[in-house]
């Protein structure tokens, strides 16, 4: 593997050129994590550090919905430009930018809770990616996450196992409370069907409201 550093100050990311196309799934997962982290940092700097957008500390419990929706709109319109700067051709992954309707619904649900939490603890998936692994590979990744924490500035991770859903959730925020966190879900192949059914039942209720 040869490491190439972009000559452009704006594209201050490290790109990896992989000559061995038969990467292990652990290596692919690590590279996907590295790329999401790099894109998160680059987009966040372009969006928040130019002086054109108000910076709000997302560790507050109350953050204007308009702040979230504007971020979501710009991210939706530009995310592919950022992902194209990464070498992800040999990695199978899926992603989406959260819809405005889903954000508004989530804000309403959390506003109605008795216990209030920092906004960046729950509005942490405006960008969400997903990768499918075997149970054995998923266990190996869990063992590596402690080693990857500092390397990739990971916010946190946990295994969500609730309501017939099971997935390893990893969060990125590059050590800034002003940057919206992003999410990567790692699913066991055996859990695909029940996880999709769970999302249909619980994550898309706003569609019928």
Q: How many domains?
A: 1
**Strand content of the residues, in percent?**
15-25%
Poorly predicted tracts of residues: 1-21
Largest sheet, order of strands side by side?
Answer: 3-4-7-6-5
Number of strands: 7
Largest sheet: 5 strands, mixed
What is the number of helical segments per DSSP (H or I, 4+ residues)? 6
The overall pLDDT, averaged over residues, is 88
- Rg, rounded, reads 17 Å
From the N-terminal CA to the C-terminal CA, the straight-line distance is 51 Å
- Structural class, please? alpha+beta
Shape: globular
What is the element string, with H for helices and E for strands? EEHHEHHEHEEEH
Proportion of residues in helical segments:
40-55%
Folded structure, characterized:
With 209 residues, the protein is of the alpha+beta class. It is 42% helix and 21% strand. A 5-stranded mixed beta sheet has the order 3-4-7-6-5. The chain has a two-stranded antiparallel sheet with strand order 1-2. Helix 1 (25-48) packs across helix 2 (65-83), helix 1 packs across helix 5 and helix 2 packs across helix 3. It is globular.
């Amino acid at each position: 593997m040869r490491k190439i550093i972009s000559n452009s100050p704006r594209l201050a990311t490290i790109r990896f050129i992989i000559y061995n196309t038969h990467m292990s799934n652990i290596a692919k997962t690590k590279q996907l994590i590295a790329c999401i982290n790099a894109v998160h940092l680059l987009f966040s700097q372009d969006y928040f550090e130019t002086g054109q957008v108000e910076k709000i500390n997302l560790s507050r419990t109350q953050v204007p919905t308009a702040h979230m929706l504007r971020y979501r709109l710009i991210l939706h319109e530009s995310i592919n430009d950022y992902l194209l700067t990464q070498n992800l051709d040999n990695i199978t992954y899926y992603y989406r930018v959260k819809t405005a309707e889903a954000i508004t619904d989530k804000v309403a649900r959390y506003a109605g809770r008795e216990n209030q939490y920092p906004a960046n603890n729950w509005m942490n998936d405006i960008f969400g990616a997903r990768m499918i692994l075997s149970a054995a590979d998923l266990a190996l990744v869990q063992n590596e996450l402690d080693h990857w924490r500092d390397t990739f500035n990971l916010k946190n991770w946990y295994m969500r196992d609730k309501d017939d859903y099971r997935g390893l959730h990893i969060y990125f925020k590059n050590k800034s409370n002003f940057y919206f966190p992003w999410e990567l879900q790692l699913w066991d192949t055996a859990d695909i069907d029940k996880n999709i059914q769970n999302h249909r039942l619980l994550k898309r209720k706003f569609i019928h409201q």
